[in-house]
Amino acid sequence: MLGVSCSGYYDWRYRPQSNRDREDIRLELEIKASELRTRSTYAADRMQNELAKHGVIVGMCRLKRLRRKLGIRCKQTKKFKATTNSQHRLPVAANLLGQKFHVAGPDKVWVSDITYVPTDEGWLYLAGHKDLFNGEIVGYAMGERLSKNLVGESLLRALSLRKPGKGLYIIPTGEASTVALNTAAY
Question: pTM of this prediction?
Answer without folding.
Answer: 0.47
